[in-house]
Design brief:
The chain is 30% helix and 28% strand. By secondary structure, the protein is of the alpha+beta class. It has a single domain (2-81), classed as Roll (Ubiquitin-like (UB roll)). Strands 2-1-5-3-4 form a five-stranded mixed β-sheet. A hairpin with a 2-residue loop joins strand 1 (18-23) and strand 2.
Length: 83
């Protein structure tokens, strides 16, 4: 199993099965196909809990509110703000 995972991580272009996204201008490396909630949990569990409880919201680079289940693409930029 370890060998199989190693092969997957070495395939593809510019990262293959990983991607880089940004949360509050901090680069986060995460698996391809991650959702907003996956990235937030990796960035900060405290901030994730604040968003989950409704005290804060997540916005994209165009200031559109995004949901925790939203899909991400390579290079996505997210910002966490209290409203």
């Amino acid at each position: 199993m370890v060998f199989y995972i190693y092969l997957l991580s070495k395939t593809g272009q510019t990262g293959g099965f990983i991607m880089k996204v940004y949360v509050n201008n901090t680069e986060i490396t995460i698996f391809n196909g991650a959702k907003v909630e996956d990235v937030l949990r990796k960035y900060s569990m405290d901030e994730y809990k604040q968003v989950k409880s409704g005290n804060m919201n997540v916005y994209d680079k165009y200031e559109n509110r995004v949901m925790l289940g939203g899909e991400l693409r390579e290079g996505a930029k997210l910002y966490i703000k209290a409203d």
